[in-house]
Amino acid sequence: MIGLLRGRVLHKQPPFLLLDVNGVGYELEAPMSTFYALPLGDDEITLYTHLTVREDAHILYGFSAESDRALFRALLKVNGVGGKMALGILSGMTADEFAMTVSAGDVAAMTKIPGVGKKTAERLIIEMRDRMDKLGSSSSTPLVGGKALSGGAANPLDDAMSALMALGYKAADVQRMTKGLDTEDLATEEIIRLALQSTR
Q: What's the domain count of the chain?
């Protein structure tokens, strides 16, 4: 099991990252919370990882905070929740916001996450209530910091829209979320953050 990687980001296109670890490139999928925490330039970063082994693929997930990985693993134990949905949850709200949503039993807030219908939201709230107590405080200081760069993308808005669709949002929803946003001079990650905030 790969539990942690330290290296430099070679390429990023949410939700995908390519991390160079001593000359070996690791492809990872990561929630937007991790992209927001990426440092400026090519500083070395540390990511906590979770490896999912399937019949048709080995998928490595990366997280800037250990608490995010712990929440991701807890979400995978909920019936009907896979890696893509768990990433969508961690991209749509912080771990603290998720804990508050579960505590308040706020089904409406949970259903704003792509792929989460009413029944799944209710199941998440019921099953995660006890698990959130075991996870303890969800807040943690990430091992990376700083404002993310656009990664040299030719069109950050197009990249942001592609990333939102990769996270599970429908094209029509992505158009609605990004319509009216002032995206001039913004990095891809900042556009995604604003789009996700518009759904709250």
A: 3
Task: Quote the CA–CA distance of 100 and 81 in Å, as a whole number.
Answer: 19
Domain containing residue 34 = 4-63
Single out the residue of 141, 142, 111, 106 nearest to residue 126, CA to CA. 106
Q: What is the DSSP letter of 37?
A: T
| Span 55-79, pLDDT tens digits | 888 999 999 999 899 999 999 998 8
CATH code of residue 9: 2.40.50.140
Of 126, 5, 133, 118, nearest to 70 by C-alpha is: 133
Domain CATH code at residue 85: 1.10.150.20
Long-range contacts of 106-113 (CB under 8 A, 24+ apart): 109/200, 112/199, 112/200, 113/85, 113/88, 113/89
Return the amino acid letter for 93.
M
Rama region for 144: left / alpha / beta (φ>0; ψ in -120 to 50; rest): beta
Beta strands in the chain (DSSP E): 4-13, 16-21, 24-29, 45-53, 58-63
Model confidence, pTM: 0.69
Residues 6+ apart with CB under 8 A from 97: none
